[in-house]
Amino acid sequence: MDTTQRTDQQRSADRRRRELLEAADRVVLRDGPQASMNAIAAEAGITKPILYRHFGDKGGLYAALAKRHTDALLDSLRAALDAPADRRERVEATLDTYLAAIEARPQVYRFLMHPAEGGQVGDQGFDVGKHSAPLLRRMGEELATVIEERLDLGPGSQQLARVWGHGIVGMMHAAGDWWLGERPCSRAELVRSLADLLWGRLAAAGDRMGGPGF
Amino acid sequence: MDTTQRTDQQRSADRRRRELLEAADRVVLRDGPQASMNAIAAEAGITKPILYRHFGDKGGLYAALAKRHTDALLDSLRAALDAPADRRERVEATLDTYLAAIEARPQVYRFLMHPAEGGQVGDQGFDVGKHSAPLLRRMGEELATVIEERLDLGPGSQQLARVWGHGIVGMMHAAGDWWLGERPCSRAELVRSLADLLWGRLAAAGDRMGGPGF
DNA sequence: ACGTGCGTGTTACTAGCGGTAACCCTAGTT
DNA sequence: AACTAGGGTTACCGCTAGTAACACGCACGT
Q1: 3-state SS track over A44-111
Q2: Is the Cβ pair B87, A207 closer than 8 Å?
Q3: What are phi and psi of B75, to 5 degrees?
Q4: What pLDDT is stored for residue A126 in this prediction?
Q5: What is the pLDDT of residues B139-164, one digit of tens each?
Q6: Is A154 helix (H, G, I), strand (E, B) or coil?
Q7: Closest CA-bearing residue to C1' of C18
Q8: Is the pLDDT of residue B10 over 90?
Q9: Which three-class secondary structure state does DSSP give residue B152?
Q10: Which residue from A47, B5, B139, B195 has the least number of CB within 10 angstroms?
Q11: Measured at the alpha carbon of residue A68, what is the angle toward residues A63 and A70, in degrees to the nearest 5?
Q12: Residue of chain A with shortest Cα separation from B206
């Protein structure tokens, strides 16, 4: 049998693939999202066609790259969401985990979310468009299932959970993106403010004097 | 004086600019976001360098194009937010206005938010990366000022309003994006669900039997 | 009448990208 | 020794954004 053969080859291919991904990671983190296939190949010490043999096209390479980071992020988010604490604490922990992640590795975040930024002359960078959605979508769907599993929302709970899942993820994403750019407050404050929003402080707030209020 | 001269010239230039933008609009809506400068120039009945004289580079053209749509959208949002009704009604009206807009002209929306989608072979499309953020940012900032003006949030209200502004906009955006792709429910239901979320139903929901709940 | 700018337009080009076809070379099998 | 199978390279294609350099036309000041 050639099973051992196959395994050997597959192993070798997988190792190669990982090496290539790590090289791609380095280049993307160094050159920003407009990293070219040439540059990645050079960093990996090989030439373009090999990249294409492994990943099909640039989108494939990007998808593989994004999957690594996305999976890691989702794992830590799940952990935070599963910790033994009450609901509000866990919501805050999850928000904080996400924000800490994008704070710790902003280049990775920018790569995943903001394709062409800082492109100098040629602006053909990674087309994250097809893939950044998947990250948000995955987070939204996962959160939706968690909500639907654990919360009692009455009739129509599944629909509601999905809307909320995507909505909350979008809130976290947009607020985090803005916060990462401007750093207007500490992470803890941001987390608290967002949790307050989710906890209904918007509805509970009083109107300012005069006028009908927001 | 050559003021009249100047004015004439400026008028002519402005008219030209508008014509070019409308041509660009047509092409972008027809070909999707990977519309090339060549194609836009051809649609406008002229050649590339003129485009570059008017808009500097592709980003400039895009920015001008995006500004038109963004301004229009922001106007209708402001109107909805300023209508005479109570807070919840106006929040719902604003959400509905946004969702109705992206529902009515999904191509425009996709162009503004999802640069390269449906690209066939060459994937160098519009680099919306630098500009899609501005749309979300502008909406977030505007909402923030509205919140800060009209709501009594106690100390730290400005910070809080900004976080909420960006957070709510992000929620709306992500939920709308997901909804537009999957159409899992009617617009009215989506609006209701999001408003419910903002109104604290997440915090108020009971845990499901067993386990610590979400 | 006549150059002289100046705005408007074109052709023809560069540099670089993603992607691919064709070849090459070495290692292991028979 | 001959042969196949992968890993690798060179050299190319078609396309893109962006730019120089040149050409027409039309109002001006003298």
Answers
A1: CCCCHHHHHHHHCCHHHHHHHHHHHHHHHHHHHHHHHHHCCCCHHHHHHHHHHHHHHHHHHCHHHHHH
A2: yes
A3: -60, -50
A4: 53
A5: 999 999 999 999 999 889 999 999 99
A6: coil
A7: B122
A8: no
A9: strand
A10: B5
A11: 85
A12: A152
